[in-house]
């Protein structure tokens, strides 16, 4: 099951962590810890730089990560995993590993996540309507990962698994532009 959901180096780490967490009965606890790390990467430019920069040595990364984990109250399997990633000089791939772990947890729960790209933030009512429509279509509980990208001009793009629906204004305008070129 896990092999079909995540792949690559980040996927291998995510799968290993998921299997260990499953054996220990701590899937939800590990997910909560990893969610804290994702939030910190998004909030702290210094931590994001530490995660992404190859300039820091493995020892420096491990020391810094240990301090951050302690400050966040993250211990056990989650802490050991992040320290191992730092020791192996793979900290740059941590966000991908966390995303892969979240996909494995969602798959185990029978959930799917749709990536929704919009030109500007949309309200909760629209999100609820979209979520209900996608749940009806898939027959599963659907989580939404909303990305705001003003370059699409309007409308939305929905990616769910291998399917994509592009109802963006940018794509429609490009289609019209292409059709007009053929008319000449």
TrEMBL record:
Main location: membrane
Any Pfam family hit: OSCP
Topological type in the membrane: Peripheral membrane protein
Gene Ontology MF: a single term: proton-transporting ATP synthase activity, rotational mechanism
Keyword tags: ATP synthesis, Cell membrane, CF(1), Hydrogen ion transport, Ion transport, Membrane, Transport
InterPro entries named among the record's database cross-references: ATP_synth_OSCP/delta_N_sf (IPR026015), ATPase_OSCP/d_CS (IPR020781), ATPase_OSCP/dsu (IPR000711)
Ion transport found in the keyword field: yes
Subcellular location: Cell membrane; Membrane
Signal peptide span: none
Annotated HAMAP family: ATP_synth_delta_bact
Function field: F(1)F(0) ATP synthase produces ATP from ADP in the presence of a proton or sodium gradient. F-type ATPases consist of two structural domains, F(1) containing the extramembraneous catalytic core and F(0) containing the membrane proton channel, linked together by a central stalk and a peripheral stalk. During catalysis, ATP synthesis in the catalytic domain of F(1) is coupled via a rotary mechanism of the central stalk subunits to proton translocation.
Family membership noted in the UniProt record: Belongs to the ATPase delta chain family.
Name of the protein in question: ATP synthase subunit delta
